[in-house]
Amino acid sequence: MTPSASGRLRLATRGSPQALTQARAVADAITARTGVATELVPVTTAGDRDQNVPLHVIGGLGVFVKEIQLAVLDGRADFAVHSAKDLPSETPAGLVIGAFCERRDPADALIGLALASLANGATVATGSVRRRSQLAAERRDLEFVELRGNIARRLDQVPPGGAIVMAVAALTVLDLTERITERLDPSRFVPAVGQGCVAVECRADDAERIDVLTAIDHAPTRTAVTIERAFLRELGSGCSLPIGAHCVDGYLDVFLADSTTVTDVANVFRERIDVGAGGDGAGLAAALARRAQQTIGT
Predict the structure, then answer these.
(1) Does the annotation count 86 as an active-site position?
(2) Within 10 Å of residue 15's Cβ, how many Cβ atoms?
(3) CA nearest to 188, candidates 123, 112, 110, 263
(4) Largest CA distance in the chain
(5) H-only helix segments in the chain
(6) Closest by Cα among 101, 77, 95, 86 to 12
(7) CA nearest neighbour of 229 among 257, 199, 269
(8) Residue 296 has what pLDDT?
């Protein structure tokens, strides 16, 4: 393996505690594979700079990854490390996803009160239109407010008598799972595409680094997330629509709603299909996305 001029392999990542922790785990795996020292290259993204505007307003998918990808494309880093759920469904020209690391628990969780314990009209904080739509479909009485910031900041914003929604995987990375009040069943509250997985990109023409990432790629996770991303790609949307897709044990659960608000969630598409038998899981996911669009008229 030929290292960079610094003598180290460089991994670009967001600078949040969660991102740095998961990037360090990837870096350690790469060092174990190559024997070459690594260093993290923290990058500030558009999503990090603006903590006050809802994600679906400032651009949805891509706001946490574009600057990290650019660091690889312009030579400041060898690898780009992302939470897979932040990745748009199309990979930029010149890059390839060389590894989907083994997935952590993809479920969402409530911190504060459990769903059944929330009083009528209780407040739930989340920055995700998917999470709002799914919870509103269960409880039309709930009130929702925005939630942004790193994990520590969000954990400090639990509304009195209410709850916040977070990914179990994010809490796992920072050993904070004791804060979880209720894990939400992912077959009922379908997670974001790729949730719980760390994806690593490198230059598409860099055979050496692609080979390194092949060694840390987790084949079952790659298969599952690729199928989920096919569903998202066909919809042509990111965080601006309430979308969920989760593939496990050969089955794909999907969720699509017709509104980015919580005031109109009557028109919701949910389905589970078998994507394991025919060998074309991505094609089946794409066909399901087309049917979902036709059903709810998006």
Answers:
(1) yes
(2) 15
(3) 110
(4) 60
(5) 17-34, 46-49, 55-58, 66-73, 129-138, 151-155, 168-173, 207-216, 219-235, 281-296
(6) 77
(7) 199
(8) 86
pLDDT digits (tens, 9 = 90+) for 190-217: 999 999 999 999 999 999 999 999 999 9
Residue type, 291: R
Report yes or no: 268 and 296 within 8 Å, Cβ to Cβ.
yes
In the structure encoding, which two tokens stand for residue 6, read together?
């610094």
Which residue of the set 78, 86, 108, 253 is catalytic? Answer: 86
Beta-carbon contacts of 176 under 8 Å, excluding residues fewer than 6 positions away, are 151, 155
Give pLDDT < 70 ranges for the chain. Answer: 1, 3-5, 46-62, 237-239, 259-266, 277-278, 298
Exposure string (b/e) for 85-105, b if CB count within 10 Å is 16 or more? Answer: bbbbbeebeebbbbbbbebbb
